[in-house]
């Protein structure tokens, strides 16, 4: 049977048609509660589709948070006959990711469209927990994201921060507003390109802008990706292919850019001491005796995931943090005093200063807590188990609502208030005690085996950017206050991108 490709709106029109045909389809989509086991509480569901409509709503992490407030920290849902469990408290996250960490170390397979570079079979972030995932994580840590690797590429980031800073001073002279998200994406995109492949994405032929556009397009598809991964295989049984045209169009565009970069590296191989991560990946791909045999598509998918995770997340966190600082001038003043005290006004903030700026770190952590970039995380149970007195069946999709966890009033005092002081270590408490206190209540980068390996790089990017903007400039916005309305679901963004005008407060010729 030829597959039918449908878009997002047509999908829900189709659902209505299915409701009319529910008796005919019951053989495919019947759901029966297993006998003699205790499932988590569940809100009322619709015939056939179950609770799928809840994931269509805007800001679904908020609607799931409201449901969990009523039904409890473990919530049982279903999409057609596919079981889903929503986790909304730190104590339950602790059970899932620590006590049963290995069982939930995998994610739902994204092989609905096998050839797609960002939701196909060659991806790293969506790969099952196994030999390939462990090999690629080790490669990422040793060659790109580990402490030694980050120290080796520090000068690359400092050069890109100089460019970022120069743009801000130029805007200040011209009295023009800065679109923070856009400038941050340039900074992170160029830094990651240099770290991975030893070159900036070319601005002359539009390569850099194309990558940024594709990252934005892919982020916009995230909700559809989650739906396709959850129910796509099921719908393929009746010849329905969800969102395939959109996914493959973006994937082919990424493929075209990355293939060109790969060919350039193959034609101009570097010496051993000058090799970047791209050279290492190509060597592993060509090595028949490698620990794990990777393909060209594995390399391309990994690069797409690094662009997605490395550029957009840092840009969003920086934008949210600056918005909160502008709206809370007393916090901005306190942060600026710390930077002036530690760094001074005769030179600019550097990466090596970051460990000596605890309040800056607290501001970043609080921005991540209040405006977590990924409000929901997905895992998959490899075996059945008991969590919090309830049974979680094998192959259940487990959604961790990080937004709800990090705004849980049982774990956080005044959880909706932007208050960096909550992350400052009190004199009577040590760092270990504070870490234990926060535990699984603070998970902006996930936790356990599948925690984001790039969290340290994210803190560096945001720390340098925020530090530069606070140290070097005063900021003003139209109306005097930033609108912090949220949009997005799987990726949280500002509904109204931050536009603010800089006024230089230190000499632009200060020593770097």
UniProtKB/TrEMBL annotation:
Q: How does it sit in the membrane?
A: Single-pass membrane protein
User: Where is the protein localized?
Assistant: Membrane
Q: Which cofactor does it need?
A: heme
- Primary subcellular site in the record, as a coarse category: membrane
Where, in this chain's numbering, is heme bound?
Answer: 452
Query: Which InterPro entries does the record cross-reference, listed alphabetically?
Result: Cyt_P450, Cyt_P450_CS, Cyt_P450_E_grp-I, Cyt_P450_sf, Plant_metabolite_P450s
Which protein family is it in? Answer: Belongs to the cytochrome P450 family.
Question: Which species expresses this protein natively?
Answer: Eruca vesicaria subsp. sativa
Q: What name does UniProt use for this protein?
A: Cytochrome P450
Molecular function GO labels: metal ion binding; monooxygenase activity
Annotated Gene Ontology cellular components are: membrane
Query: What are the protein's UniProt keywords?
Result: Heme, Iron, Membrane, Metal-binding, Monooxygenase, Oxidoreductase, Transmembrane, Transmembrane helix
Keyword Cell inner membrane annotated:
no
